[in-house]
Amino acid sequence: MPVRIPNRLPASSILRSENIFVISDERADSQDIRPLKLLILNLMPNKIETETQLLRLLANTPLQVDVELLRIHNRPSKHTSSDHMDAFYRDFEAIKNNNYDGLIITGAPLGNLEFEQVDYWPQICDIIEWSQRHATSVLFLCWAAHAALYHLYDTKRYLREEKISGVFRHRRLHGHIPLLRGFDDEFWVPHSRFAQVSLDKLKAHNELQVLAESDEAGAYLIMSKDNRNLFVTGHPEYTRTTLQDEYRRDLGQGLAPTIPTNYYPGDDPTQPPFARWHAHGALLFSNWLNYCVYQQTPFDLSAMQGFTPMES
């Protein structure tokens, strides 16, 4: 089944050109099914690029998913037109009384800033708290994962000496957890960040479980033991060229970035980059939608209050 998005959303034509099944509002309204209701809080500057990356993965599932887009504030975006934001994004005040089957909160390019220095940190905290009552499952990506681990579980991150950028080998740590069904023992994931949370502290936390880790990148998949929150510290949604775009952007800004690890053949940035994480990214999002959302959520979303997901 398809992902349901507005016909005019730029991602719609891009995904159709890739033979990915998206469905119009008109056709979806004629179907007698109960689609999953998914909310995406997009904190990335280039909204359209991130929308397309996430929707590409969400469409790779037999479930019909209705997607709404949320913004953290209504100030003008430097990288996305106000027409796009006004047409496709909603403010928190407009949706705060709604319930959702799932919520995704993206990363944000906030680098070395302490959380309390982020100008919308109070709003992020409010939405994280709200999510624990109004969404069956929440998937936090990269910066959002660190922010939510800090806010909900008091796990503080630390700043690395240099940015970790590249594609790294990971290993799963558990064999019979639904989210990891179909995973290879080892798999590859892109990372692009300055911060990290101590692997030892995460493993010692009595409310969290580390599901996958990397020698270079640390903890990658962390699940709360009540199965409501999934923290993903990397970027399984990245396209083949996203790391290259970031590397060239940093070069253009005179930042002297290191060449992304395990990305270019022979570490030669004049060569086309090599992608080996797309299958993992598709499986992760498909498993999350199936096992953490679809098989956990109440049929009637008005019954969300007080709902507790089943444990694995």
Automatic annotation (TrEMBL):
Molecular function as annotated in GO: homoserine O-acetyltransferase activity; homoserine O-succinyltransferase activity
Name of a matching Pfam family: HTS
Enzyme Commission number: 2.3.1.46
Catalytic residues as annotated in Swiss-Prot or TrEMBL: C142, H235, E237
Keywords of this entry: Acyltransferase, Amino-acid biosynthesis, Cytoplasm, Methionine biosynthesis, Transferase
Pathway annotation: Amino-acid biosynthesis; L-methionine biosynthesis via de novo pathway; O-succinyl-L-homoserine from L-homoserine: step 1/1
Entry's Gene Ontology cellular component terms: cytoplasm
Site (Important for substrate specificity): S192
Top EC class for this record: transferase
HAMAP family: MetA_acyltransf (MF_00295)
Purpose of the protein: Transfers a succinyl group from succinyl-CoA to L-homoserine, forming succinyl-L-homoserine.
NCBIfam families: metA (TIGR01001)
Protein name: Homoserine O-succinyltransferase
Native source organism of the sequence: Ferrimonas aestuarii
Gene name tied to this protein: metA
